Amino acid sequence: MMKQFSLLRRLTNPVQSNARKITTYHSTNNPHPLHLAEKDNIGIVGLPLNKGQPREGVNAGPSIIRGQGLINSVEALGYHVKDYGDMKFSSLEFDTIGSGVKNPRTIGKAMGEISTMVRGVVEGDGVCVALGGDHSIALGTIHGHMQVNNNACVLWIDAHADLNTPKTSPSGNFHGMPLSFILRELEGDVKQLKDAYEEWAWLKPCLSAKDIAYIGLRDVDAGEQ
């Protein structure tokens, strides 16, 4: 009988002997007791990327969220907000589908740029709030954070696992794959694409399965089982 490695079974097991301790930070100098970080600064960056899926519209997310009063609402909580504006992403030519992923070069380049941007914001402000954009951006945002704090955990609040690899994805849309590209346990499953395109040369896995917790998971593809 073939031995099956079920990553999701490990992730969704409610009993974990090596569960991580979540730390909150408190300050007596601020009327709001719960702090996101030791600093009171929050950097906001817009990531209007839509190449991880086929529909238009998600790239308008950052401007719509800002338009609903995000910055004023965060400032009202006592934080100092710096808005870095929206990143600009280029679409590379002759980039259709390769190694099981649509737009592989464009996405690889964008993820590297996002990681660098997020890392800079976290180093400067302590907290980075990224506004998407399709779910592909999770790869770059998590990777950027992990370059500053490699002991971080991820709370994934989504109905979908987004754990497909290029080999298991039924659509080739990258928005269903971002976690598989940063998990150490799945490094071998994405190696073919990383080796095929120089736009992915920057990427090194930075997260372990034990450091992810899912909230709201209900729709898992067969290849993610």
Quick tags:
225 residues; 26% helix; three-stranded parallel sheet; alpha/beta; disordered N terminus; 6 helices; two-stranded antiparallel sheet
In a nutshell, what does this entry contain?
The protein has 225 residues and is of the alpha/beta class. Helix content is 26%, strand content 14%.
Please describe what this structure looks like.
The protein is an alpha/beta fold. Helix content is 26%, strand content 14%. It is built from 6 helices and 7 strands, in the order αβααβββαβαβαβ. It has helices spanning 7-12, 61-67, 70-75, 104-125, 137-148, 191-196; strands spanning 41-47, 80-86, 97-98, 101-102, 128-132, 154-157, 212-215. The strands form 3 sheets. Strands 2-1-5 form a 3-stranded parallel sheet. A hairpin with a 2-residue loop joins strand 3 (97-98) and strand 4. Helix 4 (104-125) packs parallel to helix 5. The longest helix is centred in the middle third of the chain and has 22 residues, at 104-125. The chain is globular, with a radius of gyration of 18 Å. It starts with 6 loop residues before the first helix and ends in a 10-residue tail after the last strand. Mean pLDDT is 85; it is low at 1-7 and 9-34.
